[in-house]
Specification:
Layout: E1 13-19, H1 27-30, H2 32-45, E2 49-55, E3 59-65, H3 73-90, E4 111-114, H4 118-134, H5 149-154
Antiparallel strand pairs: 1-3, 1-4, 2-3
């Protein structure tokens, strides 16, 4: 097995991907209010900022910033997973159990990337917001309801047509000069 090392940076900003064990599942959308509750509960116990997020049927992407001096993102992720699982069980869903290590709702691991600079941050925010389009769930990113893209548009950070069918090319490898008009100044 690969000896994967996590990069713990106190007060750092991190990009995360967290997925369900069953990648055909729609439990995250079926129980989106429980997922939002799990995030609120984890934030009330150990604060963090949600910079950007998208919730898809079987996985989510998020950029989280931890408080200065705190690098324990694993604890927060574990808490979100636990609270969500408990609420889904409480609502009567059946979740397969692993041998002795709990429920098999989530993949055991998660992917994490330490954000290095503003360009890296912008790239990952764009990746998060375009993800529903990338997966073919919607034609226009703004049509996906479970995304922080709507907050970015309300705050004037992104243009209202950002991620629309005619502008999505700049986020999927098309020439970069076509991207200049999609972020508001």
């Amino acid at each position: 097995m690969v000896n994967y090392r996590r990069n713990f940076v106190p007060g750092g900003t991190y990009f995360f991907t967290v997925a369900l064990s069953d990648r055909r599942s729609t439990k995250l959308l079926d129980h989106v209010s429980s997922l939002r509750f799990a995030f609120r509960k984890a934030r009330s116990e150990r604060f963090f900022t949600i910079d950007a997020i998208v919730i898809l049927p079987d996985h989510l992407h998020a950029i989280l910033t931890l408080p200065e001096g705190d690098a324990d993102f694993s604890l927060r992720g574990r808490r979100i997973k636990t609270v969500f699982t408990q609420r889904v069980l409480y609502q009567g869903e059946t979740i397969r159990q692993r041998d002795t290590t709990g429920y098999a709702l989530w993949q055991r691991r998660f992917r994490e990337h330490t954000i290095r600079d503003e360009a890296d941050y912008g790239h990952h925010v764009d990746y998060i917001h375009i993800n529903p389009t990338k997966h073919g769930l919607v034609s226009n990113a703004s049509d996906w309801p479970h995304s922080s893209l709507h907050r970015f548009i309300r705050q004037g950070i992104l243009a209202p047509d950002w991620g629309s069918a005619d502008t999505v090319g700049c986020l999927t490898g098309e020439p970069k000069d076509s991207c200049a008009t999609h972020r508001t100044p």
